Amino acid sequence: MKDAVFVSPDDIRSAFSAAMSAMYRTEVPAYGTLMDLVADVNAATLGADPVLRQRLEATDSLDRISEERHGAIRLGTPAELSMMRRVFAVMGMFPVGYYDLSTAGVPVHSTAFRPVGAEALSRNPFRVFTSLLRIDLIDDEMLRAEAERILSARRIFSDAAVELTAKAELEGGLGGADADRFVAEILETFRWHDRACVSPEMYHRLHQAHRLIADVVSFKGPHINHLTPRTLDIDAVQAGMPARGIAPKAVVEGPPSRRCPILLRQTSFKALDEPVSFQSADGGWSAGSHTARFGEIEERGIALTPKGRALYDRLLDETRKIVRPTADGSNAADYVAALSKTFEHFPDTWEGIRAAGLGYFTYSVARRAELPGKVGVSDFGRLVAEGVVRFDPIVYEDFLPVSAAGIFQSNLGDEAAQDFVASPNQQRFEADLGAAVLDEFAHYAAIEKASIDKCIRHLNGQRVTEQASQE
Ligand code: OOG
Ligand code: NI
């Protein structure tokens, strides 16, 4: 009975994503400019590439593209992380993957909250890259204790947000009015606060330890630090940014430009220097500034199998042994050239990627055919070759650790580059989260398998009906 009046988690997520986008547009005007540029580039790309348009229409993913984005936040405590998990679950977003960024000199580890399952993804794929500060990586014991004290005193969720989350869990969903209130209350957690909750001295000490530590500890909440629209042509957006007054980072992270896009390519513009005020011991406020919020765009390609991902990682590694991109962009052209050269070893046709088992695809029946007998998985190669079955790449919905590190670093500046002992600790992260993270590969494999099973049922069913009608 009750189910009928619940708003679907997909709709709550869509409403939340739209509300975040509207808020960030007013907070960071350059984000709005970037959105406009992306819309122009996407329209031009679709106009010039009818095959791409047709494929996106056929797979029901054309509509989602202009609505698509991800955001990122950085949390301070295990309690914040586990509450955030409960909040995202109300919107149908679940933790997928574990990313250790300590290897890249950033004292956090992360997961991505996102919808899972083909249906939910096609409704709205909004995701949030969520990091937890590794307070254990602060060397100075006194500072660590103070940071812990400051963090334990803050409350990043409103009472109403906590109550509505508990209500959704208890009753199995939220009705219309509650869903609206939930979105409005949760939005507050992600809002920017220009009044820091620490003194200028404390901010300075935290900043000395690491810029990111200052960003997490000094403020009332985990302000959204970027929101990233998806583009169909990242090179065109990168090239178009300066004309709209935005300076992009030197190189696009991820694989090179290819005919068949794989995984994820990302670029960003530098974080803004924003005015903030700090509270002194006497209660007065003093003016200062803080750099945290930036803009990013991304182009998503096909999800790779473990075999494809291993090849990607190896080729990226080989490239970085030849040239490592510097933050000032002085060797950007050399890096791009080396990247394109090494990636010549990665097949660049959909059939090449499929036949080598490097990527995930969805399969569907393309045309009716005379089939000699019952078909099974082993017939797929032939059915594809004969054009009976068509295949479409499954979009990569996750993130890449090397790229994420590059995005973090481009916003921290060279002087912030620091060596931490690499110490991935997924177990600790999951204990803090209060749940295990989902395995991204298992997820793509399941979507692929479901499409194959559906094809087989369809083809065998079709044969049965055709025979029946001939009798
Ligand atoms: C997250 C950086 C990583 C991405 O798209 O890889 C990221 C952050 O700066 O908090 O957003
Ligand atoms: Ni991002």
Distance, first to last CA = 46 Å
Strand order of the largest sheet: 2-3-4-1-5
Strand count, sense and closure of the main sheet?
A: 5 strands, mixed
Q: How many E-type strands?
A: 11
Cofactor: Fe(2+)
InterPro entries: HGLS, YdcJ_bac-like
Family: Belongs to the 2-oxoadipate dioxygenase/decarboxylase family.
Protein name: 2-oxoadipate dioxygenase/decarboxylase
Write the layout of secondary structure elements.
Elements: H1 9-27, H2 29-48, H3 50-58, H4 62-67, E1 69-75, H5 78-90, E2 94-100, E3 108-114, H6 118-123, E4 127-133, H7 141-153, H8 159-171, H9 176-190, H10 200-209, H11 211-217, E5 226-229, H12 234-240, E6 264-269, E7 273-279, E8 285-291, E9 295-300, H13 306-322, H14 332-342, H15 350-355, E10 361-365, H16 380-385, E11 389-393, H17 401-412, H18 426-433, H19 440-470
Parallel strand pairs: 1-4
Antiparallel strand pairs: 1-5, 2-3, 3-4, 6-9, 7-8, 10-11
The structure holds 2-oxoadipic acid and nickel (II) ion.
Family: Belongs to the 2-oxoadipate dioxygenase/decarboxylase family.
InterPro entries: HGLS, YdcJ_bac-like
Protein name: 2-oxoadipate dioxygenase/decarboxylase
